[in-house]
Design brief:
heterodimer, A: six-stranded mixed sheet, disordered C terminus, B: about 280 residues, mainly alpha, MetI-like fold, 14 helices, globular
């Protein structure tokens, strides 16, 4: 285990920023800490770095308890959200700073700086000052500076927060490649679920100071531990049902009662990909109008409006959309192939059960 | 083809104040009336003196001693303000403690207090029977009626400059830069000397220059505490007043021109220094 947190809690005065968090990061892993802002993920990162001291619990880096170890001695590289470059130093000066602190020999520093300039594509910029660089270049200088002293762990706080969308995409791919080349244990904080899913080997999801789930992108997407994760990762349709005549219903939609008795409520959630759509209004059980189409690239997101006004979000490929000859306003039929029963009471995030239930298509049955 | 186009774009840029020519004209008139005209008058008057006369009047022993005291004491006072003003500004920006706002308000006290009152207060404080003087004088520290008294008075009047120019810069200083230095292994001293210090330096120099300029021109507070002994504790502006009271206009003018020239040269030097210290800035 490269990094391990055991029951770590951090309080700022009366406010608990991080509550009883335990997880570990494997050697050489690229892990994303994901969650809404105020979720405690940055505080976790700062505690690993030694910039904050845990109120309770222990932090281990490479098996060594580091709670009392000052930040200077932890041998970590930290990339700050706003890069925090030394504005009075050139790119070379910034990268060499940590090496000078560690009293490296001049020729060694020269070699290392050159290496990093090459690795990060910063050749020719070594004499520039931070204010003469673009956002993406500053970002790379900050990473080069953090990597220069060969840290055991690289920590990045919202690394792509301050650059525009196009560069963001490039930086993501580039971070994965860099991590692949260097194989240094890397943790990064993000509030962007898409970014976390795309970049990380594993994701730790935080909310309100607590750890909700740790898992691979696929695990957290397909087997979310609770409703919060299910809603935070990807899109989730949530329906409030009430059992009437032995079926759990909302408007036109009906589901099995899952053991609830007459008049009881339950909630279900389902992913947009679990909703097949056809232009043939008799193909699937329910009818709706295709209200709006969002083009996301290869995938399209569509909003279906049921006759009762209920809105269902679905997802389909461009090919399917074209083959079915769909357009906004078209009448369609659909069904819900998989769903998950969410916990009954409104506040609790944990689901009671996680079931996958297939509704067979009922051809010809009227609504 | 491109030139007129860019010009018309520039003309259409929104400006809060009307027309460039109008505002520039106003600026020049204002500067001329307040700064250039009096300066020109001074130089015109002094040009009626022959070079030999001017040199003789400007370099009497008494005048030389006065220049030395004025510029030496001003330099020391500004230096003290640069060091302690930096610490004061740091404490005011970085820490929260009871009475912080009061301390912050007190920094402006030397601006608000009539300088004569300040001089009188300091003189009584440091005299042999004063609150401080009665402890310091037996130790051989003569605050009142000595060159040291001049330095004390000038330090007092110049105190707010460094603090006030440094405060906004410190407030904008991002904390994560210090944290970045720490994650790279740097201790406090190195972080201050290599990371924070260089960023603050241009502003400290600005504050130093302002405190220095103020000190060179200071008159009211100094004459009460200095003792005003010729050759020992007599400042140049006082000597100038004495010359005027003696109706020795030529002598006063010569002194004025020397003060002006030295001040001007020093301010230019400081400005260049400031520019050098901020060379990495946009």
């Amino acid at each position: 285990m490269s990094i391990e947190l055991k029951n770590v809690t951090k309080k700022f005065g009366e406010v608990t920023a991080v509550q009883e968090v335990s997880f570990s990061v494997r050697d050489g892993e690229l892990m994303g800490l994901l969650g809404p802002s105020g979720g405690g993920k940055t505080t976790v990162l700062r505690m690993i770095a030694g910039l904050e001291v845990p109120s309770q619990g222990d932090i281990f880096i490479r098996g060594r308890r580091v709670n009392a170890l000052p930040v200077q001695k932890r041998n970590i590289g930290f990339v700050f959200q706003n890069y925090a470059l030394f504005q009075n130093m050139s790119v070379r000066g910034n990268i060499a700073f940590g090496l000078n602190v560690r009293k490296w020999q001049r020729p060694d520093i020269e070699v290392r700086v050159r290496e990093l300039l090459a690795l990060l594509g910063l050749e020719g910029l070594e004499q520039r000052y931070p204010h003469q660089l673009s956002g993406g270049q500053r970002q790379r200088v900050a990473i080069a500076r953090a990597l220069a002293p060969r840290p055991g762990v690289l920590l990045l706080d919202e690394p792509f927060g301050a650059v525009d969308a196009k560069i963001r995409q490039e930086l993501r791919e580039w971070l994965v490649r860099l991590h692949h080349e260097l194989n240094v244990t890397t943790l990064f904080v993000t509030h962007d679920q898409e970014e976390a899913l795309e970049v990380s080997d594993r994701i730790a999801i935080f909310s309100r100071g607590g750890l909700e789930q740790v898992g691979s992108p696929r695990e957290v997407y397909e087997q979310p531990a609770n409703e919060f994760v299910a809603r935070f990762i990807g899109v989730l349709n949530v329906l409030e049902l009430e059992v009437r005549d032995g079926r759990a219903r909302v408007n036109e939609l009906a589901f099995p009662s899952h053991g609830r008795t007459e008049g009881q409520r339950l909630r279900i959630g389902f992913r947009p990909y679990a909703v097949p759509i056809s232009a043939d209004v008799h193909a699937y059980r329910y009818r709706a109008l295709l209200r709006r189409t969002f083009f996301l690239g290869v995938m399209l997101r569509v909003e279906l409006e049921l006759p009762s006004g209920l809105i269902i979000r679905a997802r389909m490929t461009k090919e399917d959309y074209t083959r079915e000859n769909l357009h906004d306003g078209a009448p369609v039929s659909f069904q819900i192939r998989q769903y998950r029963v969410l916990s009954g009471d409104d506040d609790a995030l944990r689901p009671e059960v996680a079931t996958v239930h297939d509704l067979p298509p009922m051809v010809g049955e009227g609504i | 083809m491109t030139a007129p186009f860019t010009l018309s774009v520039r003309e259409r840029k929104f400006n809060a104040l009307p027309g460039f020519s109008l505002t520039l004209g106003y600026t020049l008139c204002y500067l001329s009336a307040l700064v250039l005209l009096p300066l020109a008058g001074l130089l015109l008057r002094v040009s009626s003196l022959s070079w030999a006369d001017f040199w003789r009047l400007a370099t009497t022993g008494r005048a030389l001693a006065a220049y030395r005291l004025t510029f030496g004491a001003s330099f020391l006072a500004a230096l003290a303000n640069a060091v302690f003003g930096t610490i004061l500004a740091w404490v005011l920006v970085r820490y929260r403690f009871p009475g912080r706002r009061l301390v912050d308000a007190l920094v402006d006290f030397p601006f608000a207090l009539p300088t004569a009152v300040a001089g009188l207060t300091l003189a009584s404080l440091f005299s042999a029977h004063g609150w401080l003087g009665r402890f310091l004088v037996p130790l051989g520290i003569q605050g009142a009626f000595t060159p040291l008294g001049v330095v004390i008075a000038l330090t007092f009047v110049g105190m707010p400059f460094v603090v006030r120019s440094l405060q906004p810069v410190l407030e904008n200083l991002e904390r994560d830069v210090e944290e970045a230095a720490a994650t790279l292994g740097a201790g406090r001293l190195r972080t201050f000397l290599r990371v924070i210090g260089p960023v603050l330096l241009p502003t400290v120099i600005t504050g130093f220059a302002q405190a220095f300029a103020r000190a060179v021109g200071e008159y009211g507070s100094v004459i009460f505490i200095a003792g005003n002994k010729p050759y020992a504790s007599e400042i140049a502006p006082l000597l100038l007043v004495i010359r005027l009271e003696e109706y020795d206009y030529a002598g006063a003018l010569a002194l004025a021109v020397v003060l002006l020239t030295i001040s001007f040269a020093l301010l230019i030097t400081i400005h260049l220094l400031e520019h050098w210290a901020g060379r990495y800035q946009p």
